[in-house]
Design goal:
This protein has about 500 residues and is an alpha/beta fold. The protein is built from 23 helices and 12 strands. The protein has helices at about 20-25, 30-35, 55-60, 100-105, 140-150, 170-185, 190-195, 220-225, 250-255, 270-295, 300-305, 305-320, 325-330, 335-345, 355-360, 360-370, 370-380, 385-400, 425-435, 440-455, 455-460, 470-480, 485-495; strands at about 15-20, 45-50, 65-75, 75-85, 90, 110-115, 160-165, 200, 205-210, 235, 240-245, 265. The strands form 3 sheets. A 6-stranded parallel β-sheet has the order 5-2-1-6-7-8. Helix 22 (about 470-480) crosses helix 23.
Length: about 500
Amino acid sequence: MKGKKKPAPMHPERVLQFGDGVFLRGFVDWMLHHMNEQGLFRGQAVVVQPFAEGSADEINEQNGMYTLLHRGICDGRTVDEAELIGSIRRAINPYSDYKAFLHCALNPDLRFIVSDTSPEGIVFTEDDHFTDFPPSSFPAKLTVFLYKRFKAYHGKASKTFVILPCEQIDRNGDVLKQTVLRYARKWHLEQEFVWWIGHNEFVNTVADRLVTGYPQDEIKELTHRIGYVDHLINTAEPFHQWIIETANPRLPAELPLAQAGLNAVWTNQLTPYHTRKVRILDGMQTILTLTAFLCGKQTMKQGMDDSLLAAFVHKAISEEIIPSLDPELAASEATKAYADLVPERLANPLLQRQLHRLVNHAVAQFRRSVLPSLLEFRKRHQYPPALLCFSLAALILLYKGTALDNERLAARRATEVFIVEEETDHVATFRDFWSAYEGTPASACQLVSRVLKHEPFWGMSLANTDGLAAQISTSLVLMINKGIPEALWLALQGKPAIAEA
């Protein structure tokens, strides 16, 4: 960081952070900073780079400091503020200095572990071994780290951790604990260590904030505005909420988030919060991203500025997603207030959220955030939800990729599909499915049926869900033959009949 030399106050390393990405820097690290600024926490984070390639060197070059831009609408006013964050003490790349990573386990001040390491969430990797230097997955690294701590302090319960994963999966703390225990047993570590793991508090959380990262297109003017060069400048919306499930009455005092004025909710029942966030915010983001990308939009804001797509968002929330929730949750004022905020958050004029980045992991995102609403709606109402089915048709069309050649189709951006390496199997599977498509409604229905039947996509076969294949194939044919806008208009009118295709 050039031109801004004032260092952050030095505090003990009380937080081990698995993840060097923009989300944790725009969420947890920002919260730590605010607690420190008010003298409530007095602790900094040591960041562990989760993959061989990362930003540990850049973090250290800037002494852990970076600028966070808060941008958006808050209480009816436009917010565009820059804040210098100093809650990171240092960063470690365990792939180049594994010993430094393990040495952190000896730190008596270390109390909290946070993480956000992968879009897939928390995974077990069979090929990880205790003697790897380091193991590849985050849970495997964590298991080795906990074992080092266990040995250093002879299994003392007073040297355990509060572990707060931010991965966007249901009951992330429970999943992480079970994954760590699985590694401990796979590696035949002593039973005393397995018992000690149970004394650590693995906390389920829901981390809710839109963080968009480095504002590449504006960096010259922003550098001039803030007065220094910052290679880690980050961008986030004003809204933030951290839901933390615990039965430990002492934890809110140990981590005084609410006392610092932050939107932290301590609860003994996380499920309603998780369901609301995943189904409404994440679900709407997923279906809007798919449809807007195919319409040729480049940012989320452009999608929400389109009246047709905006109508799609509002109707999908009110008529399909909320009615698919548990009746008590759907009827609550908190759910209504949360849902009312979603269109404004997605349309944030100051967050340039690029759609080509958001369509990555499209199948996994749809499965996690949209499919539960789709299936629950179908179960309750005995017919498939037209707009959620439309979004699944858009996903199928997205993966058609360069085979797309219909000039009338507004979805020319489908020829520019950005697929990350983790989805290469999906690309090959969709290519195989599309190769049999003959341009007829019947072959579209066969294509959709194959997609629905493919269990690796959905974790189950959807082939026997009555009416689903017909509804999706109807939308798919309309998209191809009439273009996305007209097909979407028909879906909004409730008129997508297969005969019209």
